[in-house]
Amino acid sequence: AQSVTQLGSHVSVSEGALVLLRCNYSSSVPPYLFWYVQYPNQGLQLLLKYTTGATLVKGINGFEAEFKKSETSFHLTKPSAHMSDAAEYFCAVSDRRGAQKLVFGQGTRLTINP
Amino acid sequence: DGGITQSPKYLFRKEGQNVTLSCEQNLNHDAMYWYRQDPGQGLRLIYYSQIVNDFQKGDIAEGYSVSREKKESFPLTVTSAQKNPTAFYLCASSIAGTYGYTFGSGTRLTVV
């Protein structure tokens, strides 16, 4: 069975600082990996995804993530945090077989300090 | 514009009553999903459907039911058998054979 662990339920950074949100996954087969962002009382919006090819993936709003198979990780980064980045972030994994079900992590709430 | 519409945004029901949450999409997506979101637990899959007139249970299907009579619609009924129904419910859809969902804006259900 697949699973996702997001390290840190709450991360706080200063405006302009590096954002690093950690995600580790467990999967018996090469996974597809995703990061989603959720603003209060809204649905989830896709930030970026890794399916095949280049392991460094660039997404919207200046975010990027790197797939590291040896570490089973898919950490999300942004060089310089902006106040508008404050939201909840979810990492998700899907295997390449059968139904396209996504398994989500518990979420990380990102707070930006002025 | 294409998208997924969930209605209503907020829903209040008395304990013991069944309630149906609406999910409609005009994206021509084949697959549709229902997730439940609780604080600190991420999203958990309730039911999913890959084609019309077919659906499968997810990880937490007990106390819920669905139907998929039309490609565009995937309503979720929260029955009185669901022991703790108060939560934020999210509907999503995707194109068959691709990965990554489009989400609706959610329905917050409160049972009193």
Quick recap of the structure?
By secondary structure, chain A is mainly beta. Chain A has strands at residues 3-7, 10-14, 19-26, 32-38, 44-50, 56-58, 64-68, 73-78, 87-94, 103-104, 108-113.
Description of the molecule:
The complex is a heterodimer of chains A (114) and B (112). In chain A, a hairpin with an 8-residue loop joins strand 9 and strand 10. By secondary structure, chain A is mostly beta strands. Chain A is built from no helices and eleven strands. Chain A is globular and about 45 Å long. Helices cover 0% and strands 54% of the residues of chain A. The radius of gyration of chain B is 13 Å and the shape is globular. Helix content of chain B is 0%, strand content 50%. With 112 residues, chain B is mostly beta strands. In chain B, a hairpin with a 2-residue loop joins strand 5 and strand 6. At the A-B interface, strand 4, strand 5 and strand 10 of A face strand 4, strand 5 and strand 9 of B.
Oligomer: heterodimer
The residue ranges of chain A in which pLDDT falls below 50 over 5 or more consecutive positions are none
Structural class of chain B: mainly beta
Which band does the percent of strand residues of chain A land in?
Answer: over 45%
The biggest sheet of chain A amounts to:
6 strands, mixed
Number of DSSP strands of chain A?
Answer: 11
Please provide the ordered H/E string of secondary-structure elements of chain A.
EEEEEEEEEEE
Count of helical regions of chain A: 0
The share of residues in helices of chain A is under 10%
Radius of gyration of chain B: 13 Å
Task: Please outline the helices and strands.
The complex is a heterodimer of chains A (114) and B (112).
Chain A: E1 3-7, E2 10-14, E3 19-26, E4 32-38, E5 44-50, E6 56-58, E7 64-68, E8 73-78, E9 87-94, E10 103-104, E11 108-113
Parallel strand pairs in A: 2-11
Antiparallel strand pairs in A: 1-3, 3-8, 4-5, 4-9, 6-7, 7-8, 9-10, 9-11
Chain B: E1 4-7, E2 10-13, E3 19-25, E4 31-37, E5 43-51, E6 54-57, E7 64-66, E8 76-78, E9 87-94, E10 102-103, E11 107-111
